[in-house]
Write a structure and sequence with these properties.
Elements: H1 10-14, H2 17-36, H3 45-50, E1 56-62, H4 66-79, E2 84-89, H5 94-106, E3 111-113, H6 121-140, E4 144-149, E5 152-154, E6 169-176, E7 179-190, H7 191-194, E8 234-237, E9 248-252, E10 255-257, H8 265-283
Helix pairs in contact: 4-5
Length: about 290
């Protein structure tokens, strides 16, 4: 959201930021509204939505990484109580999408290929989650729902839905000054508590908030963070002998976050090999 007029400094006014931010917001909102009306590229959205009613639904946002989805599907089945594991495919590449759809079929998981979305990474992610909220989750009326990144893997039993018995949402907190939001790669919501909210998972760069940050005004600002149960997130080098700058892992309890990709193929391949070795015992592989 653009800052309120009363929040702008004299420097902001001298640089016309109240006007430019309002104009940019109008463009972002128009793009969002257009995207929400686009049909899925694959998957029966009506049937999927009907299958969500009253259930706990895990939604993973797949992006051109069939191996990660294969691992995650198997590990979620083993370690995470849920009713529905929905694969929402945001891949550009048709071959990757076909492989991910085949994995969904083998896992007996609902599959939807999201509308084409070529915005920048964080806006792309936010638009994808908004599409899922408006076209599947809200009309489907689950008991609870959560979003996962496709490179976030459980390595021990965990029930993230259990926390919703005592609060309306749960996930990894990220902060920007006095404001905060739930990281879009691991966030869970009690449906009855948010069904009447205008949820918006886009980033809010005007206030330094990444994907999910636009929910600050409609949801998070009304909650007392100190009273909420939230999981920690820590970062470590991906293996001994490397620095954090050479790619790192994040851990939230027993959940491993691979943390994206690198523009250095050799290092990325090495990191993926380390992930494979870490997950192998949990996948029943040697």
């Amino acid at each position: 959201m653009p800052k309120r007029l009363s929040d702008h400094t004299l420097e902001d006014w001298l640089h016309l930021r109240p006007l430019t931010q309002t104009y940019k917001r109008l463009l972002y909102d128009a793009s969002n509204a257009l995207h929400l009306r686009k049909p899925a590229r694959a998957g029966d959205t009506g049937a999927i939505a009907r299958g969500l009613a009253g259930r706990d639904v895990l939604i993973t946002l797949a992006y051109e990484d069939p191996q990660a989805i294969e691992w995650q599907a198997r590990l979620v089945r083993r370690y995470v109580p849920h009713d529905v594991y929905l694969i929402a495919d945001n891949s550009f590449d048709d071959a990757a999408a076909a492989a991910i759809r085949a994995i969904a079929e083998r896992a007996d998981a609902p599959y939807v290929r999201l509308p084409r979305n070529r915005r920048r990474l964080s806006f792309n992610h936010g638009l994808a989650l908004n599409w899922l909220w408006h076209n599947l989750v809200r009309p489907g009326a689950p008991a609870a729902f959560g979003f996962l990144d496709d490179d976030f893997f459980p390595t021990a039993p965990d029930d993230p839905f259990a926390a919703l018995a005592g609060q309306d949402f749960y996930g990894v907190v990220r902060r920007a000054g006095e404001r905060w939001f739930l990281w879009a790669g691991f966030c869970f919501f009690r449906f009855a508590a948010v069904v009447d909210k205008s949820l918006d998972f886009r980033p809010d760069y005007f206030d330094g908030l990444d994907t999910g940050g636009s929910n600050w005004d409609v949801l998070y600002r009304h909650a007392d963070l100190a009273r909420l149960r939230m999981p920690p997130m820590t970062a470590t080098p991906y293996k001994d002998g490397v620095t954090m700058s050479e790619l790192y892992f994040q851990w939230s309890g027993g959940w491993l976050h691979e943390v994206g990709t690198s523009d250095r193929p050799a290092i990325q391949a090495d990191k993926r090999a380390v992930v494979a070795a870490l997950l192998a015992p949990h996948l029943g592989e040697r």
